[in-house]
Design goal:
Elements lengths: L1 H26 L15 E9 L18 E2 L8 H16 L7 E13 L3 H4 L4 E12 L11 E4 L2 E3 L2 H9 L4 H16 L4 H6 L9 H6 L15
Parallel strand pairs: 1-3, 2-3
Antiparallel strand pairs: 3-4, 4-5, 4-6
Helix pairs in contact: 2-5
Length: 229
């Protein structure tokens, strides 16, 4: 009996020793830092391309909430794909104006939804400007990614009723609000500091149309983006 009891005690001691060894090893394991690929580099926008696919459905129905990927009434009736692309081009050029990072990038944007207010909604209950897109950051030469792509939901509250009327009387249109909102959002996505934003705040789009596109370099043309050119 004494022999059996001694063997059992020895076995328990070895088991405890084994647990302690495993615990010590885990405590001393080195901390694994995030991979370099997950870290967003400091970027400088050298060029951009905006894609508004023809597959996006346009609705001109004057309903509170029409079905469609593109609902846009902030400009005269025309090529809505082209109008949306121009808004993104101008807004991105303004938002990227203060980028001075070390990594040159081509910003590639694909619009997936641009749903502003119809006349019926704007002058009654109001609503939201629903804007969704994907941003890719590519090497300008190789077209290889330099940062993780980002799916951006830029949705924000729209004016409605008397507030919409008063805003328009003061020159604040759907187009100017959306353009300013996107310009500020692009600054944030590109990591442009508060100092740059304070020294060069976004201006209403009507004041910027010529200046913002002069230094930009749209890289895609033809029907592979939208029926623009």
């Amino acid at each position: 009996m004494k022999y059996v009891r001694m063997v059992a005690l020895i076995g328990m001691g070895l088991a405890v020793s084994g647990c302690a060894t495993v615990d010590t090893a885990s405590r001393n394991a080195p901390f694994e830092a995030p991979s370099a690929a997950a870290i967003t580099p400091s970027m400088k926008v050298e060029s951009y391309q905006i894609r508004v696919p023809n597959s996006l459905k346009v609705s001109e129905a004057n309903l509170y909430y029409p079905s469609g990927d593109i609902v846009w009434r902030g400009e005269p009736l025309g090529n809505r794909h082209s109008q949306v692309q121009k808004i993104f081009e101008d807004s991105l050029a303004r938002g990227a104006a203060g980028s001075n990072g070390k990594v040159p990038v081509l910003v590639d944007i694909e619009v997936t939804r641009f749903h502003a207010l119809t006349e019926k909604a704007r002058y009654t209950v109001g609503g939201r400007h629903e804007i969704h897109f994907t941003m890719n950051f590519l090497n300008p030469e190789t077209r290889q990614p330099v940062a993780e792509p980002r799916k951006v939901d830029a949705t924000f509250k729209a004016f409605g009723g008397a507030r919409a009327v008063a805003a328009e009387q003061n020159g604040v249109t759907q187009k100017s609000r959306i353009s300013n909102h996107l310009a500020g959002l692009f600054q944030k996505e590109l990591g442009i500091g508060a100092a740059a934003r304070n020294t060069a705040p976004p201006q209403p789009i009507a004041m910027q149309d010529t200046a913002v596109t002069r230094n930009a370099t749209p890289l895609l043309s033809g029907n592979n983006t939208s029926s623009l050119y």
